[in-house]
Amino acid sequence: xxxxxxxxxxxxxxxxxxxxxxxxxxxxxxxxxxxxxxxxxxxxxxxxxxxxxxxxxxxxxxxxxxxxxxxxxxxxxxxxxxxxxxxxxxxxxxxxxxxxxxxxxxxxxxxxxxxxxxxxxxxxxxxxxxxxxxxxxxxxxxxxxxxxxxxxxxxxxxxxxxxxxxxxxxxxxxxxxxxxxxxxxxxxxxxxxxxxxxxxxxxxxxxxxxxxxxxxxxxxxxxxxxxxxxxxxxxxxxxxxxxxxxxxxxxxxxxxxxxxxxxxxxxxxxxxxxxxxxxxxxxxxxxxxxxxxxxxxxxxxxxxxxxxxxxxxxxxxxxxxxxxxxxxxxxxxxxxxxxxxxxxxxxxxxxxxxxxxxxxxxxxxxxxxxxxxxxxxxxxxxxxxxxxxxxxxxxxxxxxxxxx
Amino acid sequence: xxxxxxxxxxxxxxxxxxxxxxxxxxxxxxxxxxxxxxxxxxxxxxxxxxxxxxxxxxxxxxxxxxxxxxxxxxxxxxxxxxxxxxxxxxxxxxxxxxxxxxxxxxxxxxxxxxxxxxxxxxxxxxxxxxxxxxxxxxxxxxxxxxxxxxxxxxxxxxxxxxxxxxxxxxxxxxxxxxxxxxxxxxxxxxxxxxxxxxxxxxxxxxxxxxxxxxxxxxxxxxxxxxxxxxxxxxxxxxxxxxxxxxxxxxxxxxxxxxxxxxxxxxxxxxxxxxxxxxxxxxxxxxxxx
Lengths: 404, 289
Fold this sequence. Notes:
The structure holds two protein chains of two kinds. By secondary structure, chain A is α/β, with parallel strands linked by helices. Chain A has helices at about 1-25, 40-60, 80-90, 105-110, 115-120, 150-160, 175-190, 210-220, 230-245, 260-270, 290-305, 310-330, 335-340, 390, 395-400, and strands spanning about 25-35, 70-75, 100, 120-125, 140-145, 165-170, 195, 225-230, 255, 275-280, 345, 350-355, 360, 365-370, 380-385. Chain A has two domains: about 10-145 and about 285-365, Rossmann fold (3-Layer(aba) Sandwich), CATH 3.40.50.2300; about 150-280 and about 365-390, Rossmann fold. In chain A, strand 14 (about 365-370) and strand 15 form a beta hairpin. The radius of gyration of chain A is 23 Å and the shape is globular. Chain B is mostly helical. Chain B has a domain at about 20-220. Chain B has a two-stranded antiparallel ribbon with strand order 1-2. In chain B, strand 1 (about 135) and strand 2 (about 140) form a beta hairpin. Chain B is globular and about 60 Å long. The interface of A and B includes residues 44, 202 and 240 of A.
């Protein structure tokens, strides 16, 4: 009798097990790797918001080819080896179908060469190093966010219009700061050979806390233009300390390549100086399209804030996968990859084209001049300058990608 | 800007950075000197001081001057509980227990701050009186920095007087030198240790509250400061109060002058300084052999 019950129980559990499996069959699983802990965890939170919003929208309107989206988040902690571990775990243990993420260029450079072994498509939504769609490019890796080359090309176009000749920089002392200055300088030299670039630019260490020595130095060097690639908490620190020292009242032009990030503008409030050129990968008021208006309204309703660029990037990546899968009519990794190539995706940041040659998206750059507006709690951009992707994206030959 | 004003600016930067580091590192060194514990969570207590001030000024609506007094006391109270219920259990164990425990506390406080205040960035406004800049020998410098430098000097003098000119100071030094003998002559050593740990945390939190109007509040904001504080106490000598002052001013000088004239070296210079001191005087400039 007991034995019979036991067998029945086993059969019952097996049946439940099967039905659970059957349910799993009806989902498409996305694995996302972002910075979820430490000083920059706010970027991971933004990305999570974006994925959540996109997944809920898609799931409530029938999913992707009838399958619901399920997503799993992993913390890169900003370290390449942790990011690689996370990607392997997502693929081998969580059995995800698609990968996305990456805030740090350092993590991206470590992880990108490992992706081919995982055999799943990977869309990068934040890390800006040109190398991941350049010298390190491979079949599985795509990027839909603005990279350093695109953003600094836009900056150089503005710098040329400003007409001043003597430029210096303040940037974080790692790849991002140095590459930003190098690209900006090279583009500007091409546009205007008379430009003089400082031989002694300022690179305070990343997370330096105290920027006063560098602010004093730049003021005393009397440049005509200052290109600033500090970002996040560093940029907030810098701006407040620079305000105190009258940096923005000096006789030079200021460009901030990531100054229009909403997390920076929100923290600074009315301490953000007016009349400064600032760039961002996405600006919530830049596109009056249904896609953008829906996104901004839904985001604001759900999270209470204007969407940051990292939320937009993650949101757009989920929709890029949806568009690609629907085009491929398949969940096979190779077919999704083929569909992503030359794909046009409608995102809040405008239509973007994912190039087949290097898998970099030809995406718009957003710049503008900071301005106070009593309808907004933060400084807004007025006027807004949108640089079409085709004007600021280097050719695949220039990017140095050799796709296998 | 001529060389003279550049020099004055670098000097002011050195003091601005150095004095704040001194306030924080002195708490670290006093706790080590008396309790024998190297507190990894010291930077997290610094962060807690800044966030407490944020809430006191924002949600509660206190003025800066009141908040800057109360926030560090709140953190000190938290530290007293930590000492009473956690640290006290490991004094007689191997020193690695102290490292492990305080490292765990660092992780817990970091994550608690993220749960309570979120992972975004926040700023604290300086008081109206201290906004803007003042000129000194032709150098424009933030008024608020003059205030922190002044506060640091006052706190330094006060702490030195407490330790060397009062009965409380004598009691603490006795408890640090020979706990058993101190207990035998009627000093309540456990209470002394609790108070000293609370005081060390108060200094860290005061540093955080004073730094808040100049720096951004964000998760893990204590990480940088704890590393710098460790460098300060290594240079100055672990457990030495004057050592904390010298170490902090040297590190401030490295940032202030190095940032101006050796900018491309600014990441490695503090470590080079630390390595040189370790080679020349492994016990630190003011440390006991």
